[in-house]
Amino acid sequence: MNDDSLEQRVKAACQRLEGLRRQVAAAALATGTKIGLDALGAGLEEIQNLLIALLQGIIERKQAELATQEAKDRLQTIFQASLLPIIVLDPRGLVRMWNAAAEKTFGWSAAEVAEHEPPFVPPAERDDHRLWTARVLGGETLHGGDLKRCQTKDGATLEFMLSAAPLHGPGGEVNGLAAMYLDITEKVNLEAQLLRAQRVESIGHLAGGIAHDLNNILSPMMMAAPILRDEIKTPAGQALLKAIENGAKRGADIVKQVLGFARGLKADKVPVQTRHLLRETVEIMQQTFPKSIRVKINFPRELWLVEGNSTHLHQVLMNLCINARDAMPDGGTLTLLAANHEVDAALASQKPNAHAGPHVVWTVADTGTGIAPENLGQIFEPFFTTKPVDRGSGLGLHTVATILRHHGGFTQVQSQVGQGTTFKVFLPALPEAQSAEVPSDAALPRGHDQCILVVDDEDNIRTLLRTLLERHGYRVVLAGSGPEALALWPHHPEIQLVIMDLMMPGMSGVQLIKTLREISPKMKVVVNTGVTDANLLAELAPLQVDAMLSKPAETAHLLATLEKTLAAKPNPV
User: Fold this and answer.
1) Stretch 456-479: mean pLDDT, rounded?
2) Per-residue pLDDT band at 376 (split at 50, 70, 90)
3) What local confidence, expressed as pLDDT, does residue 262 receive?
4) Among the residues of 182-309, which ranges form H helices?
5) How far is CA 47 from CA 19, 20, 42, in A?
6) Which helix (H) or strand (E) holds 89?
7) Which residues pair with 361 in a beta bridge?
8) Are the CB atoms for 221 and 248 separated by under 8 Å?
């Protein structure tokens, strides 16, 4: 029953009541009081029926209003109790309603966003937001297949799955839309981590596949340099040989670093004087960095030693210096400092990998572009980079963090956009330790005419190993494969040690070792290999080889290993 109908019925009841009053008055005058009362009773009954019908209409109207209000209240309760952000936009795309979950997720209150466009839309996403809004206001429904990136009031970026539907007025016209946002940020991050893990695994397989070949290429260079040093006496020739040897070492280091990143291979740690690493890094920078970059250094002579792997620590330095170089495309100043420092408990408590005590601190500072605040928390993540695709892999700082974690160290980073970045690297120190001196060529260990069997399928490696060993007091027998070594064995009973590769055609190194152990159980075996496959290396464990060398081995390390192995007592049978 509408308002006009109720009003007409009320007017009719009032008119009827007035007419009845006049009839009663006239009847009373003409016929007496009783007749007037009878007429009044009949009239009142008629009016009562009319008023009951009128009251029934009012009750029905109120009940309809109450039902509508109850539905509204129920809808409002559901709207506010939803765990998902829900917003309602008017036909202009401005916020009409904004639930509690939206306040909690995005950070703005309903009062702040009322009659405004949604503030969580990043500038880069505004065209897309207006496009899908127009589609929904045009009558289309979005069923949750659209992924949207939003930004909270405090600057965090979140990923959402969007569902949206048009709202209709009494006449069926679209008078707004309702949108619901499902936060899938964690899911997106997990998927990204899975992809990164798969990429790392792929790098591991790729690196393992090529490491053996690369090490076989670098090994002859490492062995040839010290041999040629006796032949070439000019300063220019000696410098060139040093450059070749250093290049081979760096190549070998790169292979080990990639394998260490991809497979988590552990490296031996010894007391290291990092002042030498710092100076070597400076030499590389001065030779290879643009002349527009000025390098400032300060390394105290009394710098403490640290327990670490020099190859990995050198990689930390180079990664930080290369990042500094790339941050200064137009030139600037790169400062490289080192100092002894006592880390106190307060600083150590701020870092999950830190311990109070003596540390060596490196500082690598640049005057470059700086790092944006929103990126500072991600710089150590694998594959995160702000560099162009052809300039950065996103692995450098992740490698730095991984190496420092294995060394018990940590970093501090300060940066300001347009004014540069400072990295501080903290490494636990050994104040009382003394560094071992690297022996000169003249002091390298020498053999005493012992006979060594060299088994390797690479001609260059066999030839250079024979030259190197013969120059240092050994006799050498060569074999290019396992079957060839076994064929030579009966003719050379003087063989005291076998140095051999693992990956060879026809017969693997593991098979050869097993056969040699059957023929001569006490024969000493040194494995010289570029193999990094963990399963293959695990097969060596029960064979009890006497020593392991990783190609390309440095001459001093190779000769020292042979001397120590020959002097040791044979393994028990």
Assistant:
1) 91
2) confident
3) 56
4) 185-229, 235-263, 274-288
5) 11, 9, 9
6) strand 86-89
7) 339, 426
8) yes
